[in-house]
Write a structure and sequence with these properties.
The chain is α+β, with helices and mostly antiparallel strands. It contains 33 helices and 29 strands. Belongs to the peptidase M16 family.
């Protein structure tokens, strides 16, 4: 290495360059700054954003025992005050909001913390100056720590109902209690305020000590992805980040195994939130090395196989399971291997048999020896993906690079994960398979019918003998997954039954401590989860070893969908898109050959439209003020969803092979249409497409829809029962969705005619039995039209062959008396309610025409409330879209800064643009432990007072910057071929006539946006805030509005009118809580 000695050079150039792919057009440079900070630069000329990510090789494992959650709290704190050079509340986020950026984000895991953001390339250098301050001279004050502890605690409360969190914490109770993986990691008021107060620990001092230990140059690593040249990026980075304080990595933890083998000897029973039925098996593997060629991954592929002869296939045949997942979590020195099986009701009663099936399969794998063909399938998929690197999201790519650096799983040259880094080791595979077969393990059973209850209690009780971080759209978290506030969520909420439906008797509950059938009921401390633990007795151990499957279990056959990287070629560029109107057949092909991403990939979406759904569609009207609302047939919705499940399930063996080879396959029933998505590498794609569609469309899927043999009827009934149980479980789980997600569902039901409540769907099962569904499916395919989108590395002639082939396999299904409906008449377009009528009620206040719908959060384990305020902007047309986009850009960071940071309303605060079919709007969502009427009041004050003043005070220069950043965002275009497909289909679907389809809307929006004046925006915003439909989800445990001590005003001060929910929901079956 060339080390700087004269003070003129600011970095040490890496001796070993990265291994890159010949198909990767990006340029890379890797070096180490003079202060020891590793840097990876990626120059991507196709990137439409610039991104930076900083990784810290410390996570919650470094939390002191007296400050659990400290790593997560520190992550929050770095965003708040800015830096000595650039002070100010949320300084970086404010800059990003006005420069085409995305709000800065971060996540904390056991061993790492990763910070990241994106911004328009022209503003990247200035953004780096703000970002580098996080790690050079951050402003941290004791006064701000209380607010961030509140945010961490709100995040913790949001996660309390999550079954996966609960289950893992219960499993951790068998770990060595001095091992950091056994501890609570999110942080809460208890762990960061109450416990430190008892122990005399100062949280702020502890945080400074933690930063001094972990936030040093050699313990950090930086990744940059941008369209700038490598030399430009190097100049930006080296000058700034060389100032990060010098320091070495902290001493390694050298952790022992978390479980004592003697503690891996029994099963937990836990009552989940909702109707989840699941059995989870967990092993601790000590011999698996921390490498990319881990044999545990090889085993996860085999155990997770879904083809004929697999664990899941045989469990489905026996009516015991709905799905199975297997996977690994890697740690330094050991691996945790898990198998999770989603059970049917019968499977729950026979869960030991399910465990035995998994054990038998693992024994079979051990006896058969290492299967190199399984490794080869994965390796060939890697080779294809490696040779033709797909376009990447700059933010995600930068974050991935720093996370990989922290993992330190391979040599530095293998940072990009070349296929050569994944070496096959037959001896190691055999050793780990034996370890998995012979090692002790734990089992956790989630049983919704167990009488264990989270209710408070103490003494011994008798059981009923008959009983069987990452940041969300608004702030940092410690899990890379988060709450979905997307308005396209597919779920509903209904009131949970309070009594047994058969007897009418209220279910007996066992308090959260005491005993149950002689077994001690424990309560996990942090997630308040009651559970029992029982050691395996000899009878159960014998049962686990009682292998009875014989030849029914077998290893997967050779995968016929394997990708061959040597055969991939790119087509020449042509203009896109092209509509092929196959009028003589009533079908349409929308073909767009890739001219942007230049990857040998094909993305197809085949939509089958049947005029049958026009006949089934029931139109009902009910007068609500001056608005008529039409409700589509709920029976059709249920039939379509279950038909998609059945077709997907019947073809699962072939579909799984395709997915293992790197393809994507999905079957969905929505809006009265059946959609089949197939995408993958273009080599031999037409043959793979034919094979998959021929298996999914029921003429050759073996579902027995169009024959009357006893065997085929039995097969269809089995598929129906699985689909019905899956749907009923979904309905039950929707009862325990978070308050904010429930609010989104209610809003969709108010604004879209094709949305139905779960109560309606549940009642539809009275009509939709197996015979009804079989008849519906047969009639559905008698006369269908094809609407296909084909994008990517595919010629028009070949794309037309896709349509022709689908027509061929549909032909035998056509009925003698086809339903004659033209495509344009038959094409199903979900209508949107006339929301304008909602804002003209004579009952509403003369000044504000708000409509407020208040309903109850049906999840008894979720103590949060939520509101979603949706402001009706108008029809989706260029000027309206331009105004909504610009106001969203000018308001989203302000909403977060005021409502979340300053007023501390709740952990989740987001403002975003939302479209419901042909209606545009802006929504503000808040999830909180405050009363929703108070939240509504504060949101209203923000919109009509403080933010309105902020918009008025915006300078001409600032207004121009906002406009420019939105224009740049619109001009970025699609980020992937999949996005092209989604855009094309959403454009088609939203139009009532093919003549209305316009793929150039974004350009018209840009033109309209460039003409907007500040005065126009202010006028439109004022009108917008007076057309607000607010859904209030009230927690079952929230204090009364009038007695809430946190509320300084009275209901009389509430702007707008509270519309009684019985007027809205009499036909929607949404629970209400208006007194």
């Amino acid at each position: 290495m060339a080390v700087a000695t004269d003070g003129t050079d600011t970095y040490i150039q890496s001796k070993t360059p990265l291994i890159t792919s010949s198909g990767d057009n990006r340029m890379y440079r890797r070096f180490v700054l003079a202060n020891g900070l590793p840097v990876t630069l990626v120059s991507d000329l196709d990137a439409t954003q610039s991104s930076a990510a900083m990784g810290v090789a410390c996570g919650s494992y470094r939390d002191p025992d007296e400050l659990l959650g400290l790593a997560h709290l520190t992550e929050h704190m770095l965003f708040v005050g800015g830096s000595e050079r650039y002070p100010g509340l949320n300084r970086l986020d404010k800059f990003l909001a006005s420069h085409g950026g995305e709000q800065a984000n971060a996540w904390t895991s056991n061993t790492a913390t990763v910070y990241f953001y994106g911004v328009e390339p022209s503003s990247f250098n200035e953004s780096l100056q703000l970002f580098s301050g996080f790690f050079i001279d951050p402003i941290l004050t004791p006064e701000s720590i209380g607010d961030e502890i509140n945010a961490v605690n709100a995040e913790y409360e949001k996660d309390l109902p999550q079954n996966d969190r609960k289950a893992q914490m219960v499993l951790n109770t068998r770990q060595k209690q001095d091992h950091p993986s056994s501890r609570f990691t999110i942080g809460s008021t208890k762990s960061l305020v109450e416990d430190p107060k008892v122990s005399g620990t100062d949280v702020f001092t502890g945080m400074l000590k933690y930063i001094n230990q972990c936030y040093k140059s050699r313990n950090l690593n930086l990744a940059i992805v941008s369209p700038h040249s490598l030399d430009e990026l190097e100049a930006m980075v080296s000058e700034l980040f060389v100032q990060v304080p010098v320091g070495d990595k902290p001493e390694p933890l050298n952790l022992p195994l978390p479980y004592d083998p003697s503690n891996l000897n029994g099963f937990f029973t836990m009552k989940p939130v909702g109707e989840t039925r699941n059995v989870r098996m967990q092993w601790q593997l000590a011999t698996s090395p921390y490498t990319l060629s881990s044999p545990a991954d090889y085993l996860a592929v085999l155990v997770g196989d879904e083809a004929d002869g697999s664990i899941l296939a045989t469990l489905k045949e026996d009516g015991l399971a709905l799905s199975l997942e297997s996977g690994t979590d890697y740690y330094e020195g050991y691996t945790i291997f898990q198998v999770s099986v989603k059970l049917t009701e019968a499977g729950l009663l026979r869960w030991p048999e399910v465990v035995s099936r998994v054990k038998e399969y693992i024994a079979m794998v051990e006896n058969a020896g290492p299967q190199e063909s399984v490794y080869e399938t994965s390796q060939m998929a890697r080779e294809c993906a490696w040779k033709y690197q797909f376009s990447v999201d700059p933010i995600g790519y930068a974050s991935t690079l720093v996370a990989r650096e922290i993992e330190n799983m391979t040599e530095a040259k293998n940072l990009l994960r070349p296929p050569s880094a994944f070496e096959y080791d037959a001896d190691l595979d055999a050793a780990v398979t034996t370890e998995l077969h012979t090692n002790p393990f734990l089992v956790l059973v989630m049983d919704p019918d167990t009488p264990i209850s989270p209710a408070a209690g103490s003494e011994e009780v008798a059981a009923d003998p008959g009983s069987s971080t990452r940041r969300n759209p608004s702030r940092r978290a410690d899990n890379p997954a988060d709450v979905d506030t997307d308005m396209d969520t597919d779920a509903s909420a209904e009131t949970p039954p309070e009594a047994n439906s058969d007897t009418g008797a209220t279910e007996k509950a066992v308090p959260s401590s005491g005993t149950l059938n002689g077994v001690t009921v424990e309560v996990e401390e942090w997630f308040n989860t009651p559970y029992t633990f029982t050691e395996f007795n000899q009878t159960m151990q014998d049962a686990f070893g009682n292998f009875t499957m014989g030849s029914r279990l077998h290893l997967p056959a050779k995968n016929e969908f394997q990708c061959n990287a040597t055969d991939l070629t790119l087509l020449p560029k042509i203009v896109e898109p092209v509509l092929d109107d196959l009028k003589e057949k009533g079908d349409h092909l929308w073909h767009a050959q890739d001219v942007v991403f230049r990857t040998p990939t094909v993305v197809t979406q085949t939509t089958l439209l049947s005029p049958l759904n026009k006949q089934y569609k029931l139109i009902r009207s009910k007068r609500r003020d001056t608005a008529n609302y039409r409700i589509g047939s709920v029976e059709v919705e249920l039939r379509m969803r279950m038909m998609a499940d059945i077709l997907s399930d019947a073809a699962k063996s072939l579909v799984y092979d395709a997915e293992r080879a790197g393809m994507a396959v999905a079957v969905t029933g929505q809006s009265g249409d059946l959609q089949i998505h197939v995408s993958g590498m273009s080599d031999g794609f037409i043959l793979k497409f034919r094979s998959l569609l021929g298996e999914i469309i029921p003429s050759s899927s073996g579902t027995g829809l169009f024959a009357n043999t006893v065997e085929q009827k039995v097969r269809f009934n089995e598929l129906y029962e699985r689909a019905a149980e899956k749907e009923r479980t979904r309905l039950a789980d929707n009862l325990v969705l978070g308050s904010l997600t429930q609010g989104v569902v209610v809003l969709r039901q108010l604004l879209k005619e094709d949305e139905h409540s779960d109560a309606q769907v549940q009642r539809a099962f009275d009509v939709v039995d197996a015979d009804d569904l079989a008849k519906f499916m047969q009639e559905f395919f008698q006369d269908v039209r094809i609407e296909m989108i084909a994008t990517g590395n595919v010629r028009h002639e070949e794309a037309a062959e896709y349509v022709d082939y689908v027509r061929v396999i549909l032909s035998p299904l056509a009925g003698a008396n086809k339903l004659s409906t033209s495509h344009t008449e038959m094409h199903y377009v979900p209508a949107t309610a006339d929301t304008t009528a909602l804002f003209s009620s004579s009952e509403t206040d003369a000044k504000h025409t708000d409509v407020i719908v208040e309903t109850v959060n049906t999840n008894p384990t979720d103590d949060t409330s939520a509101i979603i305020a949706w402001m009706h902007a108008g029809p989706v047309e260029p000027r309206i879209l331009a105004l909504v986009r610009l106001i969203t850009a000018m308001s989203s960071e302000q909403a977060f800064s005021v409502l979340r940071t300053t007023e501390q309303l709740g952990y989740i605060v987001s403002l975003q643009m939302v479209e419901f079919n042909d209606v545009a709007g802006i929504s503000i969502a808040v999830q909180s432990n405050r009363h929703p009427r108070y939240l509504s009041e504060r949101v209203g004050a923000f919109l009509r007072e403080s933010h309105l003043r902020t918009l008025r005070d915006t300078t001409d220069a600032e207004f121009f910057e906002f406009k420019r950043s939105v224009v740049d965002e619109l001009n970025r275009g699609d980020s992937s071929l999949f996005d092209v497909s989604v855009r094309v289909w959403s454009t088609i679907q939203s139009k009532k006539s093919l003549d209305d389809v316009d793929f150039g809307v974004s350009y018209k929006v840009v033109t309209a946006l460039q003409k907007l004046t500040k005065e126009e925006v202010l006028e439109f915003f004022t009108e917008l805030t007076n057309r607000c439909l607010t859904v209030q989800m009230v927690s079952q445990s929230v204090t009364d509005w009038q007695n809430d001590t946190m509320i300084a005003t009275t209901p009389d001060a509430h702007a707008g009118a509270i519309i009684r929910t019985d007027e809205y929901f009499e036909m929607l079956d949404i629970p209400n809580r208006i007194d």
